Amino acid sequence: MIRSMTAFARRQVRDVYGELIWEIRSVNHRYLEMTVRLPEELRVIEPGVRERIGQRLGRGKVECNLRFRPGAATRGEIRVSERMVSQLLDASQQLLGFLHTSSLPTVTDIMRWPGVLETEEQDFTPVQQMALQALDSALDDLVAAREREGARLAELIHQRLEIMREQVARARERMPWVIDSVRERLRARLAEIAGELDPARLEQEMALLAQRLDVDEEVDRLSTHLDEVERVLGSDEPVGRRLDFLMQELNREANTQGSKSVDVETTAISVEMKVLIEQMREQVQNVE
User: What is the mean pLDDT of the chain?
Assistant: First the structure.
């Protein structure tokens, strides 16, 4: 099953440690490129986040954001440093003697002094584990979304493959008539300007002309490439680069066929093929 590179997933979890919200966006990109934004309390899990994304996604530009709202279990208890307050008051008394004033610092002034209020250091290990578990779920959602979009892309490509096969069949059926028609026109023209012609030489020239106009090899290669596209679409591995290469090969054969065309219908067939190939190529650009 092919997967699209464009998708979005959001996963929200909440317990006594707080609320976590993951948002993951991915768009098409030649390689796998990650941007990870984490709150300061959870920055330590970034290597694990990148490893998980790399294990689940093969290509795409991925933006992964985590928001964290602490809960009751992660709010550290605030304590007053009695030692620091005592030192501040002693220093204030000394300053009063120097400045000859009776103005003591207010409670607010004391609270603002660095080190007066102490917050108990918290263990964020449970939150980190919860965040990584939630990330796994968010990646499950993202992969599922990419697979759904990939199935839609595969259907569009299959539709154009069927039309391409019809065009290949038309070209194969048309070519004998085209070569016979060109041979007759050339024979009639030479007869008008040269009178009696050497039949052997004429047949030799006709054979060379038919060889230059023959597109059997191009048509065969087109059919082979179409079969390969069908096979690749059924693969479970990332196939975007392989499909892109096949689109280039299909386009090359269609161009060669068009360059050999001396018939309005075969020219139209070649143009239609190139339009279909371009439509498939646009879809393939978003395949992982």
Answer: 82
Of the listed ranges 4-8, 50-54, 118-122, 226-230, the least confidently predicted one is: 118-122
Q: Which residues contact 64 (CB under 8 A, 6 or more apart)?
A: 22, 23, 24, 34, 35, 36, 37, 49, 53, 135
Nearest CA-CA partner of 70 in 138, 112, 130, 135: 130
Note whether 23 and 142 are same-domain residues.
Answer: yes
The beta strand positions in 94-241, using DSSP E, are: 117-119
CA dihedral 33, 38, 44, 49 (to 10 degrees): -40
Cβ(117)–Cβ(81) below 8 Å = yes
Is the domain of 60 the same as that of 177?
Answer: no
pLDDT above 80: residue 229: yes
pLDDT of residue 238: 83
Same domain, 177 and 279: yes
- Asked if residue 157 is part of any domain, the answer here is yes
Write the CA distances from 39 to 25, 46, 79, 180, 202, integer angstroms.
Answer: 18, 10, 25, 75, 83
Same domain, 152 and 141: no
Q: Based on the domain organization, do 157 and 278 belong to the same domain?
A: yes
Ranges of beta strands (E only) in the chain are 7-15, 18-27, 32-37, 60-70, 78-80, 117-119
Give the single-character DSSP code of 124: -
Residue 24 and residue 138 in contact, taking contact as beta carbons nearer than 8 Å: yes
pLDDT at 206: 59
> Half-sphere exposure of residue 262, counting CA atoms within 13 Å on the CB side?
17
